[in-house]
């Protein structure tokens, strides 16, 4: 009953499957909350294809995949915004694997990856309806801060110093 976390090419089949699961879930949650429906399948396919994850490739980014008992079950990515600041993104654990301790391990591994890229702080954004994510970040020492981007879906922004 153990997790392993390792770098994964952003364009691997495993990364693509996790990205599809992540994006489908967060998109459907938004549409169900705001419009009472799931994401239009055509829109979903366009958005998944448009966001390749190339920014998570070395040397300025890293995608990590968590495996539980060998099964790909989650992801977290970091990308440098500048020499001292990285962004945490694509933090996701598959629904059936939640509650097994993977999310904090993925975030901590992403923090280490950001440090290895030279970052001294990590930023992220999330939405109000993603209450589980907001609770996780607060538990892991992230503090809510001013907006660092203009993403139309972002409602909460967090920051953590990585100097420790």
TrEMBL record:
The answer, when asked if Nucleus is one of the entry's keywords, is no
Origin superkingdom: Bacteria
One Pfam short name? Acetyltransf_1
- Keyword annotations of the record: Acyltransferase, Transferase
Which InterPro entries does the entry mention? Acyl_CoA_acyltransferase, Bact_Acetyltransf, GNAT_dom
Gene3D superfamilies the UniProt entry points to: 3.40.630.30
Residues of the N-acetyltransferase domain: 17-163
SUPFAM superfamilies referenced in this protein's UniProt entry, alphabetically: Acyl-CoA N-acyltransferases (Nat) (SSF55729)
Name under which the protein is recorded: GNAT family N-acetyltransferase
Q: Where does this protein come from, organism-wise? A: Streptomyces coacervatus
**UniProt lineage:** Bacteria, Bacillati, Actinomycetota, Actinomycetes, Kitasatosporales
């Amino acid at each position: 009953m153990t997790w392993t976390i390792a770098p994964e090419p952003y364009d691997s089949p495993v990364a693509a499957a996790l990205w599809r699961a992540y994006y489908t879930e967060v998109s459907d949650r938004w549409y169900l909350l705001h419009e009472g429906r799931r994401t239009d399948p055509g829109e979903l396919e366009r958005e998944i294809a448009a966001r390749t994850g190339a920014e998570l490739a070395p040397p300025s980014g890293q995608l990590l995949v968590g495996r539980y008992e060998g099964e790909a079950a989650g992801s977290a990515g970091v990308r440098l915004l500048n020499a001292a600041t990285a962004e945490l993104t694509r933090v996701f654990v598959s629904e059936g694997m939640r509650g097994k301790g993977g999310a904090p391990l993925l975030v901590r591994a992403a923090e280490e990856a950001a440090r290895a890229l030279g970052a001294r702080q990590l930023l992220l954004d999330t939405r109000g309806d993603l209450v589980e994510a907001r609770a996780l970040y607060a538990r892991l020492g992230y503090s809510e801060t001013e907006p660092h981007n203009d993403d139309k879906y972002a409602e909460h922004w967090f920051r953590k110093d990585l100097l420790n």
